[in-house]
Design goal:
- The chain is an alpha/beta fold.
- The protein is built from eleven helices and ten strands.
- The chain has two domains: about 210 residues, 2-enoyl-CoA Hydratase, Chain A, domain 1 (Alpha-Beta Complex), CATH 3.90.226; about 50 residues, Lyase 2-enoyl-coa Hydratase, Chain  A, domain 2, CATH 1.10.12.
- Helix 1 packs parallel to helix 3, helix 4 crosses helix 5 and helix 9 packs antiparallel against helix 10.
- Belongs to the enoyl-CoA hydratase/isomerase family.
Length: about 280
């Protein structure tokens, strides 16, 4: 595994990689160099043939991430140029900066491999953005969530408002937490369908995520990566468009030898071994 300044990246078991946000002294709060590094990590893992599942968590006992490091962001005028005499040019600079930020965080969602996000402690602002990009969300019982952006004077713009309404079933609940920035806990997140598991401690949550990653890694990578792609496509398109896309996708994927291996292993009651993808 490569060494990074703001992240710990290791492989606790074969084919499963654990990525930890590593700025615990600042509650894992992000500034620009961190989100650029995050994109580099997930772009690399996406195409690594040795990786079949990824666990994303935060180092330290207090936070998955407290979100954006507001002090550092304020010094940079949030990507804008307050001295620009033309508001249109200032706006273009800000728009480009936000698009770059969005692209870095979206690298989690665009990653070909399934990503399991483990949250604990403070999970504010950008922490919600990042977790909504993940495929599976797990948390510890002490997790404190908040869509925090209205408390710093803006609408969330890195992905929460686009993705969260498609994850949970209640528009009313999404608008309540986004408009109020109120803190909600693990059990409420579970009740609303934002997370699928709650564990007593961070350590137990990470352990469960790694175990789940091991299970995903044991499956055909052709099937797993195709399933992620098709589920994300279905979320963003009509049923008719999704069925058409699925047919095109599987016209290629169904030719894999993994199908024969999986079927034979079922008949013989053995564990199949699949080639790298």
């Amino acid at each position: 595994m490569a060494t990074y300044k703001h992240f710990l990246v290791d492989s606790p078991i074969p084919n499963v990689v654990h990525v930890q946000i590593n700025r615990p002294q600042k509650h894992n709060a992000f500034y620009e160099a961190m989100w650029m590094e995050l994109k580099s990590i997930f772009d690399t893992l996406s195409t690594s043939t040795d990786v079949r599942a990824i666990v994303l968590s935060g180092a330290g006992p207090k936070a998955f991430t407290a979100g954006l490091d507001v002090e550092i962001a304020a010094q940079g005028s949030f990507g804008g140029n307050k001295s620009a005499s033309d508001p249109a040019r200032a706006a273009v600079a800000i728009k480009r900066h936000v698009a770059e930020f969005q692209d870095c965080i979206s690298a989690i969602e665009k990653c070909e491999k399934p990503v399991i996000c483990v949250m604990h402690g403070f999970t504010f602002g950008l922490g919600i953005d990042m977790s909504t990009c993940a495929d599976i969300r797990i948390c510890s019982g002490d997790t404190k969530f908040s869509v925090k952006e209205v408390d710093i004077g803006l609408a969330a713009d890195i992905g929460t408002l686009s993705r969260l309404p498609k994850i949970v079933g209640s528009q009313s609940w999404v608008k309540e937490i986004a408009l109020s920035a109120r803190v909600f806990g693990a059990q409420e997140a579970l009740q609303q369908g934002f997370v699928s598991q709650v564990h007593e401690t961070k350590e137990k949550a990470v352990e469960a995520a790694v175990k789940l990653g091991e299970l995903l890694a044991s499956k055909s990578p052709v099937a797993v990566q195709g399933t992620k792609e098709l589920l994300n496509h279905a979320r963003d398109h009509t049923v008719a468009d999704s069925l058409r896309y699925t047919g095109v996708w599987n016209s290629a994927a169904i030719q894999t030898s993994d199908i024969e291996k999986a079927m034979l292993s079922g008949l013989k009651k053995t564990n199949p071994r699949f080639e790298k993808l």
